[in-house]
Specification:
12 helices; globular
């Protein structure tokens, strides 16, 4: 069923405008309707290959034209992407080329338009010989504002991704004005933890799909701890223990939230840091040490789970 129809039906059902039986009947009817599909796999493939060749040709010729012409082309390209994205909203519902709906195509065009806007802003500042630090900060701020607007408009995973990335770029550019060589890793680590924690909480409350929000925020948190590890470079043992402890927290959080995305990031961080630490402390016993400790953890987990079930029966 089309997402817009399903959302509208749920709104009617919540406001008692239709009954559950009517809702189920409409849902069953819409689901049984054949999807609008486009034929011509070979023609689509040819079009895609042709488009890629045209893109390569344009990018190759781009450097050979004057700067003012490049700027005009970038502005026109960005405008066409935004115009196409807004125009596609007015078209009929159904499959559109490689996309399952016009809504998906629109959001993908918004993603491309956001990236094109960043290139256009950067090139414009470079064209007018603006100071690099100022141009980078203003560009990241403008893209951040644009990402907020597009995310509030679409609530789609493409815009969720650009919102997090633009937040990262903006914060890093702002930190360039206050960071020093001594505390650079410490400041960057704190900023990553701040962004990761905020997006983790916001994903739990608002973001959909949650897997992407959890995945990106977990990576941000792990990167933040990595900066702290780098800051403690002279005492690598403390840094690695901090990273291992934090990865254990992520694994616990993944179980708490039933999130495979957090589990993937937490497990990867745990295995990576434990591997480095074990081979440094016990270079000869590394694999055997993993086997013993891993087995003990498995039995401890099974015992605790059995104990919890026994307590429930009391």
């Amino acid at each position: 069923m089309d997402k817009k129809i399903q959302k509208k039906l749920k709104t009617w059902l919540d406001n008692d405008l239709i009954t559950q039986d009517v809702f189920s009947s409409i849902e069953s009817f819409e689901s049984s309707e054949p999807q609008k599909t486009e034929k011509g796999t070979i023609s689509k493939t040819i079009i895609l290959i042709g488009g890629l060749l045209v893109f390569i040709a344009i990018t190759s010729l781009f450097e050979s034209i004057p700067d003012w012409s490049q700027l005009i082309l970038l502005v026109l390209f960005t405008f066409v992407l935004f115009y196409s994205a807004f125009y596609i909203e007015k078209k009929y519902q159904g499959n559109t080329f490689l996309f399952d709906s016009n809504e998906t195509l629109r959001n993908f065009l918004f993603l491309l338009a956001t990236g094109a806007s960043g290139f256009t802003f950067s090139f414009a500042f470079e064209f007018f010989n603006t100071i690099e630090e100022i141009s980078s900060t203003v560009t990241s701020f403008l893209i951040f504002i644009l990402s907020i607007y597009l995310f509030n408009k679409t609530k789609y995973l493409y815009q969720q991704f650009t919102l997090l990335i633009s937040s990262e770029f903006l914060l890093f550019n702002l930190l360039e004005f206050i960071s020093t060589d001594t505390f650079d890793d410490l400041i960057k680590g704190a900023s990553q933890l701040l962004i990761g924690s905020y997006f983790l909480r916001y994903t739990f409350k608002v973001f959909e799909p949650k897997w992407l929000g959890y995945f990106l925020s977990s990576i941000s948190l792990v990167v933040g701890i990595g900066f702290f590890d780098a800051y403690l470079g002279s005492d690598e043992f403390i840094g690695k223990m901090l990273s291992i402890s934090f990865s254990i927290i992520l694994i616990w959080l993944s179980v708490r939230l039933s999130s495979q995305a957090i589990l993937l990031v937490g497990s990867g961080a745990f295995l990576g840091n434990v591997s480095v630490l074990a081979f440094e402390i016990f270079p000869e016993l590394g694999p055997l040490l993993y086997l013993v400790i891993g087995t003990l953890f498995i039995f401890a987990g099974l015992y605790l789970n059995r104990l919890r079930e026994d307590i429930k029966k009391i």
